[in-house]
Amino acid sequence: MSQQIKFGTDGWRGYIAEEYTFDSCRRCAQGFANYLMKRGKTDAPVIIGYDMRFHSENFAAACAEVLAGNGFKVLLTSGATPTPVISYAVVDKKGLGAINITASHNPSTDNGFKVRDATGGAIDPEGLLEIEAGIPDQMSNVKRMPLTEALAKGMVEYFDASVNYITHLRDLIDLEPIRKAGLKILVDPMWGNGAGWFTRLLAGDKTEVIEIHAERNPLFPEMKRPEPIQPNIDVGLQKTVELGADVLLITDGDADRCGLGDENGVFLNQLQVMALLTLYLIEIKGERGAIVKTLSTTNMLNKLAKKYDLPIYETGVGFKYVAPKFTETNAIIGGEESGGYAFRGNVPERDGILANLYFLDFMVKTGKKPSELLKWLFEMVGTHYYKRIDTYFKGDRKEKIEKILSAKPETLGGLKVTGLDTTDGFKFSMEDGGWMLIRFSGTEPIIRVYTETTKESAVDGILQDGLRVAGIED
User: How far apart are CA 426 and CA 421, in angstroms?
Assistant: First the structure.
């Protein structure tokens, strides 16, 4: 019997050549085909795309063979393609859904298998469980049509998803003022799918776009992994200062997440960025409507929602929770702590390209530098401090959970604990309006401890207390 495949928050990821093999990808593709057929859906195409990791294009081709073998028409991207572009292609081509071969921000040793529904958004938790249950144990239960045959029969067709996506972008944002603004923009696509995109969109006038880490290199030199947080972005932050750039734009490995550095080479963390983008949508674009956030992101959004009399909804961690609520409420923004943000008018999917473009538009429309935009935000909602620690753990997850539940801390970092939310992980509220969250990764044996507080001096103490609560001594 083959290895059992378990889907996490956004699909499945595994160690290449150990768990993650061509056959395991084929089995996952068969599970997705079974899921679609169970719904009687076979009359529209399935989009398949991939990132720049090792063998991604070949894993994608293996999935295309399986979908074609099950009678589905497949539109296979002709090159490595950002996740938001793949998601938009589902809507643009009126597709049934998508398979995306990417491990996003995981280490270079990994690859992954993501799925999307007909909206281009994440499939809900019940749907993911159904796909997982439909994955066959044996390759003998996987249907395949060789790629050469599928291409000859028109069951698989290569296509460029970028052209129509760019047309769509122009409906959401006017790029000309950014091109003419004379900005010096440094871009770090982290050796991933965002390479070349901002040059393509913004070059040709007074604004200068400079890229680093823009080639294909599945080893991801100069960073631990293509995740847009420190220390992975430290080279880019240093280069921002050296070049005198106005801003650093960062996209993760599959370009669905956004990272930003200011003109001084200071990282703007993901919570600050989501609050800033929300402020941009409200103040600059004049948007009004719901805000959707995961429980691991900022309370600054609650303060903005109160100030502008907007509804706000909190979900579990992951876009499989964010996307349905975002769609249901026609929200102006939906986002999570990892740097993924979705926007009204676009598909219910994280879009690191659009997020960075919106931030540039914020700079141009206000005439403010990134540090000045952050100062404006803090003047409105107060200064907030955020930090996260990720640590690998050994042993049984259930035992860790029992230890956390039995801890019942009265204070964290010297601040009184005022409540506990177990919707997704263990979120402790504190007397200053801040919080500390302990949560297990859905894709790796990692415990994450996060905090946001208005007390800068308490940050490290809160995290250390959080580690102790989780049974991990520093």
Answer: 6
